[in-house]
């Protein structure tokens, strides 16, 4: 389980100040929701926590490590071993089937993957979709496959960007319950960026990003 400290993070694109001195703490094993309207900087904030994007000011400290004092290679390895990321568009690779998509982070980490992928397919209740291509999946099925890929390496942290924005109420509840189950069974620290109030019930803490008036 990981402890995350976001300190005074600011980010500007062109003339637009997307994040302005954002600070908060995520305790080990917490589920935190970062909420706010579209365009408020939620995705940017997740990308900074993941070390994919750099803040103009401020930093992110994970388990006493300032991630922006690491080299790019060290940060990429840290991300691979410690984090699972669920992107807004899910980013399943279209040329790979479900099994191959889930196996990808395991292969990148040099781990044996077949048994682990079998476990994940069963855990996500998508065993029958093993050989399906992403284009043939429903929104809920795609999201389950994306979550399976995100937790393949047993990450201590999950970062999820708008995981329910394109799902109906039933699938939204299913995904929310799945986050709770992962958190309860593995102690995973989870940060969810969303403007969807239907998923708020999973959070122990809600952080609201607001536009300056």
Please describe what this structure looks like.
- This protein is an alpha/beta fold.
- The strands form two sheets. Strands 6-7-8-3-9 form a five-stranded parallel beta sheet, sandwiched between helices. Strands 2-1-4-5 form a four-stranded antiparallel beta sheet, covered by helices on one side.
- The protein has a single domain, classed as P-loop containing nucleotide triphosphate hydrolases (Rossmann fold), CATH 3.40.50.300.
- The radius of gyration is 17 Å and the shape is globular.
- The N and C termini lie far apart (37 Å).
Brief rundown of the structure:
Helices cover 33% and strands 25% of the residues. The protein has 213 residues and is α/β, with parallel strands linked by helices.
Tally of helical runs: 6
Number of domains: 1
> CATH homologous superfamily - what is it?
P-loop containing nucleotide triphosphate hydrolases
- Can you give the helix content as a percent range? 25-40%
- What's the oligomerization state? single chain
CATH architecture descriptor text = 3-Layer(aba) Sandwich
Shape: globular
Radius of gyration: 17 Å
Low-confidence stretches: none
Largest sheet: 5 strands, parallel
Distance between the termini: 37 Å
Structural class: alpha/beta
- Strand fraction equals 15-25%
Annotation, overall tally of beta strands: 9
Give the class-level CATH name. Answer: Alpha Beta
What is the third-level CATH name, the topology?
Rossmann fold
């Amino acid at each position: 389980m990981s402890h995350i400290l976001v300190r005074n993070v600011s980010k500007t694109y062109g003339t637009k100040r997307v994040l302005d001195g954002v600070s908060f703490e995520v305790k080990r094993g917490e589920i935190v929701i970062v909420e706010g309207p579209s365009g408020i900087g939620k995705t940017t904030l997740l990308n900074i926590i993941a070390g994919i994007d750099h803040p103009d000011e401020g930093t992110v400290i994970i388990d006493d490590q300032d991630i922006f004092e690491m080299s790019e290679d060290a940060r990429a390895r840290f991300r691979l071993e410690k984090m699972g990321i669920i992107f807004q568009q899910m980013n399943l690779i279209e040329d790979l089937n479900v099994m191959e998509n889930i196996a990808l982070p395991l292969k990148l980490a040099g781990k044996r993957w077949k048994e682990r992928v079998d476990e994940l397919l069963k855990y996500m209740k998508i065993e029958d979709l093993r050989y399906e291509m992403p284009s043939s999946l429903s929104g809920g099925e795609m999201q389950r496959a994306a979550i399976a890929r995100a937790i393949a390496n047993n990450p201590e942290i999950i970062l999820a960007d708008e995981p329910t924005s394109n799902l109906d109420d039933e699938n939204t509840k299913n995904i929310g319950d799945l986050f709770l189950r992962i958190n309860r069974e593995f102690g995973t620290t989870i940060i969810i960026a969303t403007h969807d109030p239907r998923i708020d019930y999973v959070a122990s803490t809600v952080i609201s990003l607001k536009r300056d008036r």
